[in-house]
Specification:
By secondary structure, the protein is of the alpha+beta class. It folds into five domains: 59 residues; 104 residues, Beta-Lactamase, CATH 3.30.450.20; 115 residues, Beta-Lactamase (2-Layer Sandwich); 160 residues, Reverse transcriptase/Diguanylate cyclase domain (Alpha-Beta Plaits, 2-Layer Sandwich); 249 residues, TIM Barrel (Alpha-Beta Barrel), CATH 3.20.20. It is built from 26 helices and 27 strands.
């Protein structure tokens, strides 16, 4: 019975299921499954879309944040979290933006809020609820962020954050470069040149106030140009090398070099101009250009400008047939005035001479200063030498009138050399050379006069140049050699030494006399090399002679000026092995004219080596006796002009007798030069002269003959 009672319940349950199945058909079940699948797919798609959105936001270089209408965080990207990394731990969905700001302020994330926290928060939140404008925000780490916020239709906020730190730094650098630059700088519109900004240097340099500047266009500053100074190439940058003239506020003109660069400033295209004032530089260049072509003392044109003027006249003369004359004027003894009265007086004298020359010339004539005391004059429109001669005479007369310089009345003369164009030269170089050679002739013949160029002068100059060229080669090739003339003891007749005399065996001209090439060597500076060569050769040869025989070598005053004479002598003695006491160095009185401390010091140093010092050509100078007090010479050589015809010339006998007596009193050796006759020899020996030298005993011989000559005198002296 119990079982029977339960079955109806079971049956009832089964019946319930049957009734449910009857209500939900198979079609309804499939619909539910489909909808559920679609919902799940939609959710999955939404998740994917959200992830894609987040990924897209994360790759953006700007910071992005989404806030709901209540100011709660919905979404933000990585860049936003990086920008606000000090507060990124607070960023959570649903967190309030205001709360994160407060925590950030408390942490010191926003330096601008320090000391005014609540006010700063209120200002910041008001911008959030009234978005649409940009503003900047400085963070604690020094970065600067540009903030732009937009509101959607439902009240949500989309925020954009851009890190503009580098941009601000560049702007600061630009302001420093622009505003603090000492060079005047201008920013102007590229289309019309309207000036937008200027730095302080431009205001100071031009003299306009800042507001006045901003009313101007660049053309208002340009004096003569209407075009813009910038011509931009593809790179947008060009440095203009031309000069521009601008007008300052006071109306004065300045020369400028303008450098331009295209850029964007405050989101606007601009051209920046750097304005380098070249006014003083151009004036300096003009002064330098003037100085390069003019004499600084007198203001006259110099040699370069004279040459240009002569070339112009020659070119004009080829077309027109016009002739002109070139005159070189050289003041006589100007160096003496400089040395005695000083260079200041000498300069004033040159200015005075310049005025005299100008006053003598016509306006169409030209004048130039070529050197210390040399002038040049170009006389145009003259066809005959007589006209030029008249001008030369007037110039000499004008110069000869006493010049009043300070307390001095100075008399000075001049010499003039003249060349006629085009006959004496068809170019400036040849014409100037002709005038110079004519001047040399005038100074040689008789100072205070003038001389015209002649073709023979050029021939002599050409010959001199050939000697110089050949002499230079002869020194380099060691062609020159010494010949030796014996010095004879007048009592015993024996050889005491030899004087080394330079000889030049030329391959084409034979033996060239020293009188031809020694002056050339001294004028060209070759004398030091020539003298050093002869000194070494003479010492080397003498080292092979008998021990008691000395060698005498002549020295030029120019060898002392070179400053290395002492070392040259020491080197020659060391290389040859010759004893210093066997070397005599002969100097002339002209060396001691200025009584130079350097010359005397060198002579004393040579004497300290043991070298003997001899005064050559004694009696031909100006102050022979005073020179004997300047230095204790070992030997005095009587010049041959006093020895010639000594036996029959009583005046010469008196002079020679006095020199010999003086030498004996000073305890020095006396040598007579140029002994050619037995009568001269006898007279000298009778007066007590120590040595003689001349053709009576022997001419100068090559070193190959010296050994035989010394050997022969062993058996028989040269004189009895």
């Amino acid at each position: 019975m119990g079982i029977q009672k339960k079955r109806p319940k079971l049956a009832q349950k089964r019946g319930g299921k049957q009734r449910l199945r009857a209500k939900t058909s198979p079609v309804d079940v499939r619909e539910i499954v489909r909808r559920r699948a679609e919902a799940e797919a939609a959710i999955a798609d939404a998740r994917k879309a959200h992830e894609r959105l987040r990924d897209a936001l994360n790759i953006l270089p700007q910071g992005i944040v989404f806030l709901d209408p209540e100011g709660r965080y919905i979404l933000w990207n990585k860049k936003y979290a990086e920008i606000y990394k000090r507060s990124s731990d607070l960023f959570k969905q649903g967190a309030k933006f205001e709360d994160t700001l407060r925590v950030g302020v408390a942490r010191g994330d926003y330096p601008e809020a320090i000391g005014r926290e609540e006010k700063w928060l209120a200002e910041r939140l008001s911008r959030l609820h009234k978005p649409g404008q940009r503003h900047e925000q400085t963070l604690a780490d020094g970065r600067c962020v540009l903030i732009e916020e937009r509101q959607t239709g439902d009240g949500s906020v989309i925020g954009l954050r851009v890190d503009i730190t580098e941009l601000k730094q560049r702007e600061a650098s630009f302001r420093l470069l622009f505003e603090g630059n000492p060079v005047p700088m201008i920013l102007c519109a590229p289309d019309d040149g309207h000036i937008r900004y200027v730095n302080d240097a431009a205001i100071e340099h031009y003299g306009f106030a800042r507001d006045e500047f901003h009313k101007l266009k660049l053309r208002d500053l340009q004096a003569f140009e209407s075009e813009m100074p910038w011509i931009l190439d593809d790179s947008g940058d060009q440095q203009n090398t031309r000069m521009w003239k601008h007008v300052k506020a006071d109306g004065s003109l300045i020369d400028l070099a303008i450098y331009s660069r295209k850029l964007v400033y405050n989101d606007q295209p601009m051209v920046m101009l750097a304005l380098v004032d070249m006014t003083e530089r151009k004036r300096a260049e003009a002064r330098l250009a003037f100085m390069a072509q003019h004499d600084s003392l007198t203001g006259l044109p110099n040699r370069n400008l004279l040459r240009q003027r002569v070339d112009e006249l020659l070119a004009h003369g080829r077309r027109s047939g016009d002739k002109f004359a070139l005159l070189f004027v050289d003041l006589d003894n100007f160096k003496t005035i400089n040395d005695t009265l000083g260079h200041g007086t000498g300069d004033q004298l040159l200015k005075s001479v310049t005025k005299r020359l100008r006053s003598t010339l016509r306006d169409e004539d030209a004048i130039a200063r070529l050197g210390a005391d040399e002038f040049a004059i170009v006389q145009t429109g003259c066809g005959r030498p007589e006209e030029v001669a008249l001008l030369a005479k007037r110039l000499l007369e004008a110069i000869n009138v006493p010049h009043l310089i300070g307390d001095h009345s100075i008399m000075i003369g001049a010499s003039i050399g003249i060349a006629m164009a085009p006959g004496d030269g068809d170019n400036s170089e040849r014409l100037m050379k002709g005038a110079d050679m004519a001047l040399s002739r005038a100074k040689q013949d008789a100072r205070g006069t003038f001389s015209f160029f002649e073709a023979e002068m050029d021939a002599r100059a050409q010959a001199r140049r050939r000697i110089e060229t050949d002499l230079r080669a002869a020194i380099e090739d060691d062609v020159l050699c010494p010949h030796y003339q014996p010095l004879i003891d007048l009592k015993s007749g024996r050889i005491t030494g030899f004087e080394a005399l330079v000889r030049w065996p030329h391959a084409e001209r034979g033996m060239i006399p020293p009188s031809e090439f020694i002056p050339v060597a001294e004028e060209t500076g070759l004398i030091s090399a020539l003298g050093g060569l002869m000194l070494h050769r003479a010492c080397a040869d003498a080292a092979q002679w008998a021990d008691e025989v000395r060698v005498a070598v002549n020295l030029s005053p120019l060898q002392f000026r070179a400053g290395n004479l002492l070392s040259t002598v020491m080197d020659a003695l060391k290389q040859s092995g010759l004893a210093p006491s066997r070397l005599e160095l002969e100097i002339t009185e002209t060396l001691l004219l200025d009584k130079s401390d350097q010359v005397l010091a060198t002579l004393h140093a040579l004497r300290a080596l043991g070298v003997r010092i001899s005064m050559d050509d004694f009696g031909t100078g100006y102050s022979s006796l005073s020179y004997l007090r300047s230095f204790p010479f070992d030997k005095i050589k009587i010049d041959q002009s006093f020895v010639r015809d000594l036996a029959s010339n009583r005046d010469a006998q008196a002079i020679v007798r006095s020199i010999i007596s003086l030498g004996m009193g000073l305890g020095v050796t006396i040598t007579a030069e140029g002994v050619e006759t037995e009568a001269e020899f006898s007279c000298l020996r009778a007066e007590g002269c120590h040595e003689g030298q001349g053709y009576l005993f022997s001419k100068a011989r090559p070193n190959s003959d010296i050994a035989a000559l010394l050997q022969a005198q062993v058996a028989k002296p040269l004189v009895a």
